[in-house]
Automatic annotation (TrEMBL), chains A, B:
This is Phosphate propanoyltransferase. Pathway: Polyol metabolism; 1,2-propanediol degradation. InterPro entries: PTAC. It comes from Gracilibacillus xinjiangensis. Pfam families: PTAC. Its cofactor is Zn(2+). It comes from the Bacteria.
Amino acid sequence: MTVEGRETLYRAIRDAVMDEITAHGIELVQEQDHDLLVPVSVSARHIHLEQKHAEILFGKNYTFTKHRDISQPGQYSCMEQVTIVGPKSQMERVRIVAPLRKQTQIEISKTDAIKLGVNPPVRHSGDLKGSAPLTVIGPKGNVDLLEGCIIADRHIHMSPADAKRFGVVNHQKVKVEIDGEKGGLMYGVTIRVSDRYALDMHIDTDDANAFGIKGQEYLTLIK
Amino acid sequence: MTVEGRETLYRAIRDAVMDEITAHGIELVQEQDHDLLVPVSVSARHIHLEQKHAEILFGKNYTFTKHRDISQPGQYSCMEQVTIVGPKSQMERVRIVAPLRKQTQIEISKTDAIKLGVNPPVRHSGDLKGSAPLTVIGPKGNVDLLEGCIIADRHIHMSPADAKRFGVVNHQKVKVEIDGEKGGLMYGVTIRVSDRYALDMHIDTDDANAFGIKGQEYLTLIK
C-alpha cells in the first residue's frame, strides 16, 4: 500500500472510531466529568520575599498583614505592596504573597516582562538559578536582585489522593483543555503533588487572557 | 453492554488506532509538513479610521505617512498615533493602520481591555455591531465611539490557491498547533480567503505572550 493510501485508510478508521465515540460522548462525559475537571486560579504578578529582603524593604521585625487567603493552604496575599523596576519601566502595587521563602521570587507574565524590559525564563516556583534580575522598591529600602524573576510555568497543585484519582504522578506533564470562543489546549502543564496542596491549576494573566479564563472555571485534564 | 464496558471498549479501539497512526506518524508528517505550515504575525493594539473620524482627529485633507508595510498587501501602519481612553485608564501611542475603512475599528487585547476598563467582544474584523465604546484623542480633536472596539479573533488570511492547497474554505474554523515550553493548540481559528490576501496568521499580543510566539514562526494548521 502507498503512503497516501495508508494515510487515507488510517484517517478513515480514526474518523469512524471518533464518530462512534462522539455518538456516545454525552454519556461518557457525564460519567467522567467529576474525575477529569480541575478548578483554575489566575495569578497576577506577585512577589515572595526572603527574610533578609523583607527587612530591607519593610524594616526589622516587620509583621505583614493578611489581605486574603489564596488557593493553597497556609499561603496568603498581604496588604503590603512593592514596586518592581526593570530597564524599560516600573510597576507599582505588586502584591506580596506570604509566608516568607528561602529566596525572593518575582512572578510576572510575558506581557509584564516586555513592558519592564526583562527576559525571565519559564520556570517552576523555586527554580531561580540564572533567572532574570530586577529591582524591588519598598517603603524602607530597595533591593537589587541579581536573579529571582520568572514566568511561572502552567501547573496543577494536587494531593497524593488526587494524583491517584487522576492517575498522574509528581512532575508529569499533562494537557488541559479550555472551552469557549478562545478555547484550546495548553501543553506542558506540570503536575505538582504534595499533601500540603489543594487541587488547583495555576496560570498567569497571559494564559488567562489568551484563553478567555476568568478563574473559578473547571478545566479538563488530558493525560 | 454496560456504559463502562462500552467506554473501555471504545477507548481501547481508539488507543489501538492512535498507536497505529503514531507508528507511521514521522513518515506522514514529513510528507505533509510543507503543506501544513502557516507563518504568524502578532498584531499589537491598533486602530483603523473612517474618513469622518480621520478629519476630526487630524484635520481636513490630512495625509497619513507610512510607517511600514504589514503582512497584507496594500495595508500599512502609519507614523501617526492616537490615544485611546476607557473608563479606567488610557493608552497612548496607538498606531493607525491605513488605508481608511468604512467604520472606525480599534483592536486591543484582553489585557488592554482590563486595563482600560472596557469589555470588547471577540470578533472578526468589520463585525462591529454592539462592540465596545471607547474615546479616541488625536492632535486636532476627540471622537467618542459608541461602538468599534473589539478583540480580533484568531484568523488566517490566505488566497483561494492557498485555500485549495490546504483543503479549507472561507470562514472554516481550524486549529493551530504551537511548539515550545508554552506550546499548545489554539481552537477556533477562522480561515479568511480572498485574492487580496497573503498567507499569514494573525494573533493578538495575549495569544503571542501566552504561547511564547514572537512572530515570524511557522505554525501547524490542523483541520
